[in-house]
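Hi there,

I know you've been waiting on this one. I reran it after we fixed the sequence typo, so this is the corrected version. Both the input and the resulting structure follow.
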Amino acid sequence: MAVRGADTVLRAAAVHTLVAGPKPQRALAIVGDRIAALSPDPHGLDDWITERTTVIDQPGATVLPAFDDTHTHLILAGHSAHDVPVHQAHTIAEFLDLIRQRAATTPEGQWIRTTTNWQELNLAERRMPTAAELDQASDRHPILVKRGGHNDVVNTLALKLAGITEDTPTPPGGVIGRDEHGQLNGRLIDNAMSLVERLLPPPDLTTRVDGLRRASLDYAATGIGTVRDCMVPLPDLAVLQAAQRDGALNVRMRALVSAIGMTDPAQIEDLLDGMQDWRYTADPLLRVWGVKFVLDGGLEAGATEEPYCDHGDFYGTLTWEPDALVRSVEAVVRRGWRVGTHAYGDRGVRTLLDAYQQVLERNPGLPANMLVMEHGGLADDKQRARAIALGIPVTIQQPLLHDTAEVEDGFWGRERVDRLFPAREWLDQGALVTGGSDYPVGAYGAMRSVWGMTTRQTVTGVRGPEHAITRAEALALHTVNAARLTGESHLRGTLTPGRLADLTLWPTDPTTCHTDQLRDLDPTHTLVGGRTVHAPAR
């Protein structure tokens, strides 16, 4: 007989522990927030069952560790729960009408913002709306339209409130958009976004917490138990803390505090001062992981060695001066925080590795995985070898490629887009690689990412099939490797006694099911720390 009863006992067709060697188990017992025991017999842990034990008996199900999304934006997903759902629009007219409907119920002068998970190529006009068109939806409300994390479009009133005129100098590392006549068109890219976004008043705390509750439930419903949010504004740490206190965080949060829009070490020092109180928090659900830098642009401004297809003299945008980046990253690691830096184009990757190498040389003995490359989209063979030699892990986001391949073809051409996120080569060369979505640019979902990395399918068909990896490798990127990246291998990533009870139950075995089933496969249950955060509706 067991010394004590279990809070939960699971029975399943297979429990894949992701520990090399042992065969799948059939039963698992949870006590508190930890895995207490495993058995190859589905009834081998029945002695752990008491009158207070919850028994999840799913004889056809498969159990896996809960997944990590190691590069995503839960904060933006939380906003989107209450923002204008322009991702539902198919034309600019529909896009504007959704904003117009919100304006009709919003007090004059209040800001209106939209969801961010949309692509202009999904609109019939295959372009972004302009400031003049947004004025048609409302000229009495400042309007902020976001697309992903690198692009804003605003209406004329928002430009006016921000003091942006045709004479406004373009900030370093940013773009203030103009039409063919040189007139402002409302487009703001990268470091120019802060000119407007700094004006937005934060939604009330109740609304923010409710948005995080809804968004984190949606992540959990796809099998994700931990998110590494790579763009958390410093004030939003207090919002996350409120959500955690209210029981509204349904996934573990590893927050990277955003340095977007910053360009010099003095700004970073101020940011670090604001993070100081978070250094000693040890909440297993909510932790500050480090600081997020953005070195180059997104889909339309990633820094490349060769010119863009549509602009013979355009090579993308670097948002930091290299020396300033080195001194800023150094300031972060000297205070004991970790760094994740967005580098998308091959010139961005080269520049980042130059900076990281200087930081490592000037600060010998830094712990493993202190410096991370986010994306490494166009990293070539020599750059990959250099990153590995320096001990730099990389996060890749196959859903981003899936959803944006057509957009990127227009900027970089098919050959370069085919080479994005070479997972096969990263692994073969010995890198620590993890998987993510980069929501809202890519769609989040555990098996959606696994499907993408194993098939290289995109909206334009299979791209770069030689970069595909096996299903077992893709699963590891989101579990075992992810826990190594965050420094939590002793707590998460595998299903063994003593580790946190973060796990998922699947109606069919994701390790063997047909490829056609994999893309849209969702779990029946997701547990985080033994707590069921997603289950079938009763």
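Quick highlight: The domain at 83-197 is CATH 3.10.310.70 (Diaminopimelate Epimerase; Chain A, domain 1).

Best,
R. S.
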